[in-house]
Amino acid sequence: MTGKARGRKSIFITGGASGIGRATAKLFHGKGWFVGAFDLNETALASLAQELGNDNCITRKLDVTDKQDYENAIAAFAAETDGRMDILYNNAGIGESGWFEDIPYEATMRLVQVNFIGVLNGIYSALPLLKATPNSLCFSTSSSSATHGMPRIAVYSATKFAVKGLTEALGIEFARHGIRVADTLPGLIDTPILRNTPNRTDGTKPTEDQLKSQTRGTFRLMPPEAVAEAVWGAYGTDKTHWYVPPELVWIDRMKVFLPRYIRGKIGKSLPGSE
Ligand code: NAD
Is the pLDDT of residue 273 over 60? Predict the structure, then answer.
């Protein structure tokens, strides 16, 4: 063994510098895993590396939309893990909100590139390592907005449906390689994406008071560690979808039997609908 991982299990995380990715990096580090954290944000990666200890991780700048950059990042990771990868965690993501026509075309294209093409780049690049690792898991961050299409985050929601559909299909395909495939559908998670994504229609961002007042119900504000626990849970089982919190699954179930009711409830949450 020549790499820093020294035979430890390993996880490759995109968007690893912040929020859900960072919480997952810390959780797996605490379980004795070797962590690869990849992100655009080099400053935050440097502080994570310091927290985890340089011998326990590899951190590197990566733009998931750049296939060549992705392949180079995978090669750097493989050099530390002797060609193995127990979990690929496609987690990097960005948000866009507002009415469809208020979001500039270029911003929408970037959203699709990061949230969906980035996942495809990851899977193409990591597949040889996943195949070479017994019981490996290909895991991605979808969203509660992939239960029912969500107005005012319509394309974001569509990218997350794409991730969810890809997960289901590849879960069947990759069984022949011995690779499991799963995803998480988080609700409202307390991370920077919530605060930093302006509504393109009116320029507003959720205030601290608004976020902190979400204390009850399916869309209560939850810590990123709750999603990290779902990733950990997914490694131990064959379950495909990890809803955080688990009761979010009811949107998926109820829309089959009560589609007008669910559509009406989502419509009522829009401004001006009272
Ligand atoms: P976050 O903003 O804290 O983290 C996202 C990270 O992705 C950032 O560090 C950012 O630098 C990185 N990133 C963005 N574009 C990138 C690119 N092109 N290449 C590499 N890295 C890039 O937000 P988060 O909530 O931790 O987001 C993680 C994932 O969770 C995203 O896919 C997001 O869509 C999803 N999600 C979040 C919530 C929520 O409520 N926070 C809910 C459902 C799903």
Answer: no
